[in-house]
Amino acid sequence: MPVKQHRISLYVIVAVSGASVLSLEILGTRILGPFYGVSLFLWSALITVTLAALSVGYLLGGRWADRTTSFGRLAGIVSLAGVWIVTIPWIQGPVIGLAEAWGLRTATLATSFLLFFVPLAMLGAVTPYAVRLSTTAVESVGTVAGRLFAVSTLASVVSALVTGFVLIPNLGVFMLTTGVGALLIFTGAAGLFASREAGKPPLRTSVLVIIGLSAAWASPSESADPDHGLLEVKQSPYAEIRVFENADGRHLFIDHGIHTRVDTATWSSTLPYTAVMEIPEKYYPQPGRMLLVGLGGGSLVRRYRTDGWEVDAVEIDPDVIATARKFFRLDEYGATIFNLDGRRYLSTTGRKYDIILIDAFGSSAIPFHLITTEAFAVAKTALKPGGVLAMNLICIGWDDPLVAHVAATLRGSFRDVLALPMAEPPDRLGNLILLAGDREMETIPDPESNSELDPEWRFSPGYAILHAWDNRFRPAADGVTPYTDDLNPVDVRSEEIKLAARAEVRKYYRKVLPGR
């Protein structure tokens, strides 16, 4: 191969490898996020595995380069990394299932290692090996190394931006993962056949390419399947979104957690906690203005609009808003929707509300910045005098430490905090609503169920209202440390909650989405 062509080929291989590293790391949050939540643990695990793998790759690449300098070997390394990556959609399920019984942190770290360590290590070996291939004199090794590492890093920068901003939302996780693997296979194969070594029988590389491309071609992918109830599958900038419909109603899944479920005959919510979130209305003789932080499918918007309230809703994910409009008739409710982070909206809006409902917590993650002393202080400035804040939590039991910590944090801004539990028996996973305000929160009369479902059914919204109010209590938060922007270990506390939520979600998923 001519020297110039040789150098260009090496730069291309190094650039593609560097871009693939960052793309794979970001894809890891979408491959594992629906199962473990995109939390501090997941990011820490992926960064740890990435850096450890690159370190091992640098060592191996340098050692291999000292033993033999073969363009064919470099091409084979790149192709082999690609083959591994295109198999990730195939092995993802078994690997996650293998780690299912382990704790959240252990499972997150183990699955990150098993899925990504090997291809990342191979990609890490590319640049030091390319440095050896490009060096013709000891005097130039520094310049050569600097150029190649600069090319690799610059490609990583571009890849990080394009992967998150463009590719994942438009291509989806499985297609992009397969595409990254296929690109590496093609790059390695093209580099080999363009080199002088192409005259040798490249049997092993040819077999490798065929296997890899066959796996890429047959790689599992997902798309809407209305005939089987799957109306939408979408990768948003923030999460995986699914809309599914069966005899139980129409569901909105966000990162495999159920955020909305409605009866399509009435479009009323069949999730009991939404009925309990109506209780703040009882503090007002006439409808006023309500703010909802966390839209979901818009069930709470519908409930309050039906009762005559003016409703604003804030949702950070534009695709959630689009999904609510397309599949849950959001536009018919006449609410004002803001595409913005909830805390950002609260800190910048000039509007005042009688009620603020915070319903932004799912089974995959707890937005830590919405449950701090500073966040609640900002929320209070958006409430009218005597206004009520209600927050939906998912916790394990009525006395979950998370309830005490959030209640202690709320008491830094509000005079009274009341808990409305829903789980039965009291030690199981379930929703719990916290009410907070500068008033006595028990001053309203016992609410009556106005559910559209049978209130005698134990798990109906009607029963939930009566059960939650009859079992109301003030959380024992004395001596409990409030959460702040500076110190907020909610990810540690939520580990057990996420595991329990994931177990229940998987059971439900197997029922409504066979094969998942």
Could you characterize what this model shows?
With 516 residues, this protein is α/β, with parallel strands linked by helices. The protein has two domains: 3-217, Growth Hormone, Chain: A (Up-down Bundle), CATH 1.20.1250; 270-496, Rossmann fold (3-Layer(aba) Sandwich), CATH 3.40.50. 53% of the residues lie in helices and 15% in strands. It has helices at 3-36, 40-67, 71-98, 104-134, 141-171, 173-194, 203-217, 272-276, 299-306, 318-327, 342-348, 373-381, 401-410, 461-470, 490-512, and strands at residues 230-235, 240-246, 249-254, 257-263, 268-269, 289-293, 310-315, 336-339, 353-358, 383-396, 416-421, 429-437. The protein has a seven-stranded mixed beta sheet, sandwiched between helices. Helix 3 runs parallel beside helix 7 and helix 5 (141-171) runs antiparallel to helix 6. The longest helix is centred in the N-terminal third of the chain and has 34 residues, at 3-36. It is elongated, with a radius of gyration of 27 Å.
Key descriptive features of the protein:
alpha/beta, Growth Hormone, Chain: A, Rossmann fold, 2 domains, five-stranded antiparallel sheet, 53% helix, elongated
